[in-house]
Each structure stands twice: as structure tokens, then as C-alpha cells.
Here is the input.
Amino acid sequence: MKPRTFAAFVGPSMFLMLLFIAAPLISVLSQSFYVTQSVFETVEVEVCTPGFLTQTCEIEQRTQPILDDDGNQVVNTEFVGWTSYRNVLRMGDAWDALSSFDWSKFQQIDFWKALRFTLTFTLITLPLAIGLGLLLAITVNNVTQALKGQIIFISLLPFIITPVIGALSIRWLFIGDGIMTALLEWWLQRDIAMFAQAWTIEVLMLFYRVWHVGPFAFVVFYAGLQTVNNDTLESAIIDGASRFERLRYVIIPHLMPLIVFVALIHLMDSYRVFEEIVGFASQAHVISLQWLTYDFLTPDEAGNRSVSRASASAMLTMVGIVILLIPLLRKTWKDHRSAH
Amino acid sequence: MSVPKALQTPLNLRLASSAFIVVWCLIAAFPIFWITVMSIKVPIDAFAANPFSVIFGPRTVAEGKGLSIPDIVVGVVVLYFFGRFCVRNLPKLVKRHSPFGLIALGWLASALAAGVAFALTFAIILPNVMSVVNGALGVFGNPVLGFTPEHYLAVWVDNQFYRNFINSLIVTTGVVTVSLTVGTLAGYGLARAGSNIAFWILIAALIFRSLPHSVLVAGYLPVFINSAEILSPILGENAPTLYGQPLAVIAVLVSINQPFTIWMLRSFFQNIPAELDEAARVDGCTHFQAFRWVIMPVMWPGVITTGLFSFLLAYNDFLVTSLLLDAQNQTMVPAIAGYFNRETTTTDQVEAVAAAVSITAPLFLLVMVFQRQIVSGLTAGAVKG
Here is the structure.
């Protein structure tokens, strides 16, 4: 294919990606070094309150935004260097807390709290989701061919459901004295409030994510199991391999590329954990990196969005993604070089 | 089919596996089933601690809102025949009556007609007929199972959820059409190029795919809010404010989805033998003619599958739509946040549940109709690597 034709085919897609993915990245980077604020001025105002005989008047100082001729607030953008990053990271406080071994104080800083949750969330759900997917694929493959359509249908439901709604639907089972909480209370014979402390919410979030991603792993692994070489399996049996050994030495190695694929997709997606925070309304207890940026971007009571700090936290989130991707990119690059 | 004895599964393992599958199916379906049950009960029943009062809804029945045994029997029978008609007769009707080449349009029209017929039967005809029947039956006509559509009415009619539905419709239609048009061309080009540039584009797309969406939104937001000022030197007076515009959100979602789309479509196009377009080229077609006349007729399964995933992304999105759309143009998923953030009364909560079920219902239908395509889409990316 000639370069010109290739460019014509790929052009529109490239244009969109450059305009809406690459360009915003650059603008985020530059925004994180600048702060845009309304310009304020201090004016002296005489305030009078009615009193007996004479009015009581006093002069007080008031800070108010400067308005231009159209009545809009005058804004001023200035270069602040690493200040926004410092505001997000709060290295000083974090270091103080760490050097005094005060974990709970360390976890009061939003960024570190979010980072801690995002990382534990990613690392705990990864083996659970892959394990659930493998177990499902193997059992469905072993037991039944007749009902597999129905089983896949039911399994796909948690996967395609809108993440916020999925999280909500699980939250509603536990909220207040919801039936699952009632069941747990009856079983443990004690009073339980699932949404009063951080760790129970986190357990629910982990459960939700495994419930949501497990089906994806299941479908991928199930498709992989259909291509296992039966001759290899039979010769393994003739060599006296037990069921577990066949699983360990024939089936798992066959599925390995798929396991790596699912793991990568899962790493990327669970590092972006966000919808759980909204669905479980857990921002008072548990937050994630992506939620932190989202929160900076949402207007506060005064209607201001802290774009600079959002950009700083977005760039810090990016650093994590890059670290996550480096091994993958190196491997792809090696494969590519050896292929040519 | 005979399986060698050594490959057969021993009975206890079979039992354990079956039990595991049953438990999984229960866990997978339970939350969705449960919110559906909750949404048709009065608040006291919906949030009751006893599961049986959630299912049977004694308070709902006591308020006279419920289904009697004849109601349930007739409802199930009508539903069964309706479903059977849709599965067996509808495809034939569509094939016979849709004009040549416009079969997709025929499907769309028939789906719409089926939806209207369903709504008419279950919302207007059946309730009226059954109220007469129940009256005639006396004691047997008394309600036994709590059922009230009041929360759905409140959500869709009083709170104007249909506006959000229309917005969702606009955004998803736009995203699916644009992203498929652009993505198909790019996917085809990448599948047939085999050059170094194609490899680097795919790698860049992989990196773009992994970016958290909030990072990108942080880039859009200030620009979109001030776009009228920024664009005015070029467009003059009628420079638009992009913030709150569904069109801007469509462009954003299409771009965010583009990396995934081109990866998936590329793997589908690689499955179409290159000999096919080479033959066309030998006969004197240009690349574009080969694409139009040889590839386009055979590419639809892959395109439909990719379209499904684009639809899911646009439909399920919360982050981008909630930050870039104003309240007036809000889609369904962010709009529901308005309910559960309010949470002043339990009625509000049950209305949120009803809204959640309303959002889930189209997805449920989607899996029912397109299960095979979704599965093939999930595995296509994986098997090709």
C-alpha cells in the first residue's frame, strides 16, 4: 500500500487521536504549571446600621473580585512552577508522617490515600479476577455443553452493566439494613454497618470489580480452552498425568498468552478505578487517583474548578500508567524487532 | 459423542463443578434481579430486612397495588407468546417486507414496532382487561404479589427522565456512527499496511487506550469552557461554547474510543484474506474501490461487533459526560447521580433504583440479541494478541 493511500485511510482516525488525546495531554502538562485565578481587590466600605438617634457606621475592609466592563471577573494566569504539584503531593507533611511512622496521618493526605487504595485495589483484584475466570472456564468446559449459552448469557450481565449502576446495585443490597446486611447480622449475631468504615467499603469494591471483570476473563479463557490440543492431553494421560498435572502442565501453558492479555487489560482498567467511588459514594472514606482529578475538576461551592491542581494530579496519575506500561512496551518492541 | 474413559470427569468433580456454576450464576444475576424486584415495591417493602417481604411486598399489597394470580398467569402467557412471535415470526416478516438493501432499516422499524406493541399491551390493554376480570373473580382476584409502576412513572414522567434518554440516544448514535466510519477506514489501512509506521501507530494507540479519562478531561475542560473566546479569531461572532454541547462530547468519546476501535477492527480485517482485495486490484480497482466493492460486503460481522463495544462505552460513560455536559443535556448515567445524592427520602431512593433498572434494561436486551457478537468481540482481541 502506498504511503499516500495509507495516509488517506488512517488520516481521519489519526487526526482525531492527535486533536483529542495528544493535544490535551500537552495542554494538561502546561496547565499544571500555571494557575488561573480571579483578581481580587481590597476595598474599604462604610457599612451603616440603623441605631437610636444616629446610625452606627463603621468602615470595614472587603475583598471582592475585580469586574471588567462587561461585568465578568478579571482573571489572571501566572506561572507557578511546581507549586500545584507540591499542593497535591504535600511532600513535607507526608515525610513528617512517614518519619514518625504515623500511617494514619500519612493517609490523611488525599493523594497518598488515593495512591494507596488504587495500588492495593489493582493488585488484589488481579489474581482474584483471573482465578475466577479460569475456574469458571474450566468448570463450564468440563461439565456442560448443553447449557453453556445460558451460562454465558448470565455471566455477561455483570460485565456489560453500566459500572456506576453495577456498583449501586450492590450497594443497595447492603445499605442500611438491606437484605445482605441483615443476613450477615443474623449470621454473625452482631450489628453491622457496611458503610461506616473504610475497610468494609473496600471489600465491597473489590467484590464488585471481581464480579464485573470475572466474566470477561471467563469468556476469553473459555474460547482459549476450545483450542487445547486433544492429542497432547491424551498423551499426557498415557504418561500417567493426573487431572491436576494436566491442568498445570498442559492447559495453563496453553492459556498463558491469554492470561497475560487479560492481566494487562485488567491492570490498565483497574488502575483507572473510578466508578466504584461514585457508585458506593465512598469519597469520605476511600478515594482513587482518577477520582482525585475528577474532584478537582468538579466546581466547588463558589463554582471554581481547580484546573491547575487537577492537571498536576492527572500528570502524576500518568506517571503511574507509564511505569505500568514500560515492561509491556519493551516486550512488544523486542518481539517487533525479532520479527523483522 | 463418545469421550475416552480417561477423559471423563468423575462424578464428585462433576457435582462440585455444577454446584460452583450454579452459585456463580446466582451471584452474577442476583443484584440485577434484586434491584428489579425492589423497583416495583413501595419504599418500606423495597428496603425491608426480610427478603420475603421484598419479593412479595406485603405493604405494597396492603395498599392495593399488586398482581392477583390471574394477572400473573395471563401476563406470563402473553409474554411467552410475545417472545415466541419475536423470535420465530419477526425475522421472516422483516426479510419479506423490507426493501432490498435496507434490511437494517427493516430491523430498526420492526424493533420499534415490537417495543410499542409491548408497551401498549402491558401498560394499557392488560391492566384494563385484568381489572374487569379480577372484579368478576371475587376472592381469587385479590392481589397477592406486590407490584407498583409508580416509581417508573415518577422517574420517566414527573422527573422527565425521557429527556436524559433522548440525550443518551443522541450521544450513543453519534459515537457509534462516527467511530465506526473513521475506525473502519483506519482498521483496514492498518491491517493491510504492514509497515513500520503502522506498528508505531498501533503502539501509540495502545498507550492512548490506557490513559485515565480524567487526565484527558482535565485537558478539555478549560478549553471547552472558554472555546468561544479562543475560536473567535477564526470563526468570528458565532464561535460556539463547546462546554455542554452533545456534539463536543461525541467528538471526545469517539476519540477516546478510537484506539480500541482500530485495534479491534484491524484484527477483524486481518481475518479477511488479503487475496480478496489483491484480486480486485489486479482487475484494476484502486485501493478505495477494492475497499468499497470487495471488502465492505464482507466486513459487517466485525463492524457490528465493534459497534456494540462503542455503544457500550458511550452508553456507560459517567466521567466524561458528567463533566462536559450541563444539566440540560445530561445523559442517563450521570443524571442518576442526582437521585442518589439527594437521598432525602426512601421514595427518592426507590426512584433511583427504578432509574437504574431503566438504564440496565436496554443493555439486557442488547446481550439477548447480540450475545454471539459480544463473545466474538471479547475473544477477537485476545486471540490475535
